[in-house]
Design goal:
This protein is α+β, with helices and mostly antiparallel strands. Helix content is 29%, strand content 40%. It has 3 helices and 8 strands; from the N terminus they run αααββββββββ. The chain is elongated. The relative contact order is 0.13.
Length: 187
């Protein structure tokens, strides 16, 4: 379980406890005059429902604005250069990252091909955040004689405030290369 998941679970535990306490406080007179375990279970169900709604909202959207979480926000578009050891040419690329607190989706496009992540994750390695993903690349039909459909893996270091991504990639065609990206203003 990563750090973000641990913090999320701890926070939602506190939210559940607070919501349950507020609900019980709201009906305190009724609880004191006519105590019922059935009522307590009902209040607990209400607290679980409200907490579930808050948890879903937080996981999908609100976590991006929580600076205390310390998790990189990559929900952005990045543009940059990819350089392969196959021909040592610089190629312009666009990498789009869609992200929630617990999931990452990565799409990469060039003038010649499109890649879509099969699996992706953000890893905290000794205090450095890394975007690691495996992908399937589908070149355009007209260039498949020199660039066939292939699988690969990218390992990208996440720069300060998620403004840059830099690293390398490896493919099952025995090629590798460097990737250097900078955040654009688009999402």
């Amino acid at each position: 379980m990563n750090d973000a998941m641990k913090k999320f679970m701890k926070r939602m535990g506190w939210v559940l406890l607070i919501v349950f306490s507020i609900r019980c406080g709201w009906s305190w007179r009724e609880l004191c005059s006519n105590f019922s375990i059935y009522s307590l279970f009902g209040y607990a169900g209400e607290a679980i429902g409200i907490t579930t709604f808050i948890a879903i909202l937080y996981e999908k959207l609100l976590w991006r604005y929580d600076r205390t979480l310390g998790w990189p926000v990559l929900y952005k578009k990045y543009e940059g250069i990819i350089k392969s050891n196959y021909d040592s040419k610089d190629r312009e690329i666009t990498l789009t990252v869609k992200q929630s607190l617990f999931s990452v989706f990565v799409f990469l496009t060039t003038k010649e091909s499109r890649s879509k992540a099969i699996t992706a994750d953000i890893i905290n390695r000794d205090g450095e955040y890394i975007l690691c993903y495996s992908y399937l690349n589908r070149p355009k039909v007209e260039i498949r004689e020199r660039s066939e459909i292939h699988y690969g893996t990218s390992i990208l270091s996440i720069g300060e405030k998620s403004q840059t991504l830099e690293g390398e990639y490896y493919t099952d065609r025995n090629t590798a290369g460097d990737i250097c990206l900078r955040k654009t203003d688009e999402v």
